[in-house]
Automatic annotation (TrEMBL):
One of its GO terms (biological process) is response to nitric oxide. GO terms for molecular function: diacylglycerol O-acyltransferase activity. It catalyses: an acyl-CoA + a 1,2-diacyl-sn-glycerol = a triacyl-sn-glycerol + CoA. The keyword Lipid metabolism applies. GO terms for cellular component: plasma membrane. This is Diacylglycerol O-acyltransferase. It comes from Streptomyces brevispora. Pathway: Glycerolipid metabolism; triacylglycerol biosynthesis; Lipid metabolism. It holds the Pfam family WS_DGAT_cat. It comes from the Bacteria. Residues 6-265 form the O-acyltransferase WSD1-like N-terminal domain. Its EC number is 2.3.1.20. Keywords: Acyltransferase, Glycerol metabolism, Lipid biosynthesis, Lipid metabolism, Transferase.
Length: 460
């Protein structure tokens, strides 16, 4: 069986994890009954297990290696059993047929399941069928360790469970025979003679870039963390999930009127939602605007998805102190234009560039310190995850919504993830359960912010 060394950033995510700060990302996919019927919970569980087992990457586990010192590698789990990873859970108030009641129960349960770290020694992922009773909606919660996948890679892996992608891969729908999973071929980490010169030049360039990022980090680090009190609290190890649905047409109308990108609009919506939420809960606005870390994929279009995490990020001040929604949007657009002009490999947000330059032993022993330092750099993670544009289904039941979920860094209470599907921008909010018990209110504030921006559009 071949092995594949964890890339430096994957290794960093692997060692950043603790019981109170599990480093898995996730998604809650909600499905509507097919013509008022679902295949039934047992059939859904079997279908999901068959398709997950046929995804080669999901058979890989992490194991330590002798060289490089402190390193780890992916290897095929010889004792792989999909039933350890795919389970069914019933939400409180079992057999809830009403969609609103089901969503409330499913998100509450998903928050509890997201608290639990993935078991080490096994392939680091889990899937849960939530509900699935006849004539009612059901959901699938997917948990993938961040060492296994970044956002785009998670989409590529998770897409294999849907009818459309499974059919294209020859796995078919319910009742189709299981296909023996192929092992992942080894990826050599020893360069050949022709690569040495190029690697040396690339190494010098990478070290110079890392030095610049390190200097930016020192300048951007904050020792006084009293600003964003609503977003910082002692970790309780608990998780709470809330969702919001924003009208995509409204977001695009705002973008056409204001210029910039839809992502600029959504970042401004997050800033406005935070301002509304703080004011509604009677909390004073912070003296300094909170900072968002905005991940940026470094994957090339059409490139291979076989490698590990390929991420950088921008730092963005969220203008919660600005009372005017359109001024907030202008401020966000200007800041993001400056970030894009500098590029994703410069500035304090490009912390992943540093991770790529550190030896394996530094990741193993320096991860706790690095995790604690995240609070000095940013207050909230805001990430966008792309989805296929085509309609998706599972067992013939159409996908109604998919809410992505991001992990929480140490010292932080909130992560915001967004994706677009079915004419909606779907927002997944993950928070420390004790620090932000009113997380649902923040979701409503995001919806209110879009409505106000839309109402303020100039009349043609």
């Amino acid at each position: 069986m071949g092995t594949e060394l964890l890339a430096p950033l994957d290794l960093a995510f692997w060692h950043l994890e603790s019981d109170a700060h599990p480093m898995h990302l996730g998604a809650l996919a909600v499905f509507s009954p097919d013509e008022g019927r679902t295949p039934g919970p047992d059939a859904l569980l079997e279908l999901l297990g068959t398709r997950a087992a046929a995804i080669p990457r999901l058979r890989m586990r992490v194991r330590d290696v002798l060289l490089p010192v402190g390193g780890a590698a992916w290897s095929v789990d010889k004792d792989f059993d999909v039933h350890r990873h795919v389970m069914r859970v019933e939400p409180p108030g079992a057999r809830v047929a009403d969609e609103a009641a089901f969503m409330a129960a499913a998100t509450g349960l998903a928050g509890e399941l997201m608290e639990q770290p993935l078991r080490r020694g096994l392939p680091p992922w889990q899937m849960y069928v939530i509900g699935g009773a006849a004539d009612g909606p059901f959901a699938v919660l997917v948990k993938l360790h961040h060492a296994l996948a970044d956002g785009m890679r998670a989409v590529a892996i998770g897409a294999g469970i849907f009818d459309e992608i499974a059919s294209l891969a020859g796995r078919g729908r319910a009742g189709a025979p299981a296909v023996r999973a192929r092992t992942v071929p080894p990826r050599s980490w020893m360069p050949g003679p022709r690569q040495v010169a190029g690697l040396a030049l690339g190494r010098i360039e990478d070290l110079g870039r890392a030095f610049g990022v390190g200097a930016s980090l020192v300048r951007a680090g904050r020792l006084d963390l009293r600003g964003a009190t609503a977003l910082s609290a002692s970790s309780s190890g608990t998780r709470r999930l809330a969702t919001a649905d924003l009208d995509l047409d409204a977001v695009q109308r705002i973008r056409r009127a204001a210029g910039g990108t839809s992502n600029d609009v959504l970042l401004a919506v997050v800033a406005g939602a935070l301002r509304r939420w703080m004011l509604e809960r009677g909390e004073p606005l912070p003296g300094a605007d909170p900072r968002a870390l905005v991940p940026v994929s470094r994957r090339r279009p059409g490139g291979s998805a076989a490698t590990g995490n390929r991420l950088s990020a921008y730092l963005l001040g969220l203008p919660v102190s600005e009372p005017d929604p359109w001024e907030r949007l202008r401020a966000v657009r200007g800041a993001m234009d400056r970030n894009k002009s500098a590029g994703p490999l410069r500035g304090a947000g490009a912390v992943a560039v540093l991770a790529d330059q550190l030896p394996s032993l530094a990741h193993r022993f320096g991860a706790p310190l690095a995790g604690s330092a995240a609070r000095m750099l940013f207050d909230v993670l805001v990430t966008s995850v792309p989805l296929p544009r085509s309609a998706l289904s599972l067992g013939g039941c159409p996908l109604r919504a998919l809410y992505p979920m991001a992990p929480l860094a140490r010292g932080q209470s909130l992560a915001v993830a967004l994706t677009t599907y079915g004419g909606k921008v779907q927002v997944g909010l993950v928070a420390d359960g004790k620090a932000l018990p009113d997380l649902e209110r923040l979701g409503r504030c995001a919806e209110d912010e879009v409505a106000e921006l839309l109402a303020l559009l100039p009349v043609p």
